[in-house]
Write a structure and sequence with these properties.
Length: about 100
């Protein structure tokens, strides 16, 4: 049997093979008169990672925001308005799509 830390590590590294995932926001946001209670993230493609890698004059955090915005089909300012807890949920979903491997 796994101890708690080992169980979390195994759970985190599970691959999510779905074409997309709906993420319910713990803290919904309203941006430009549109309320976001959920975001639907599609699986990343190689071209998404290449596009993010080619971005110059942006911080790693900004690059991540732009990637998440592309994958969720929203403007970057929507991702920027998210509560940190919800941003972490999006990053965890991205990692699950990648099979537990960060880029």
């Amino acid at each position: 049997m796994f101890d708690t830390d080992e169980a979390k590590e195994v759970e985190t590294k599970k691959k999510d093979m779905r074409p997309q995932a709906e993420i319910t926001l713990d803290f919904p946001v309203t941006v430009d008169a549109t309320e976001y209670k959920t975001l639907t993230m599609r699986r990343p493609k190689t071209k998404d990672s290449v596009k993010a890698a080619k971005m110059r004059n942006v911080t790693e955090v900004e690059r991540g925001i732009l990637l998440l915005a592309d994958l969720c089909g929203v403007a970057p300012n929507v991702i920027g308005e998210l509560d940190e807890i919800d941003a972490i949920k999006l990053n965890e979903q991205l990692e699950a799509f990648r099979g537990g491997q960060s880029s």
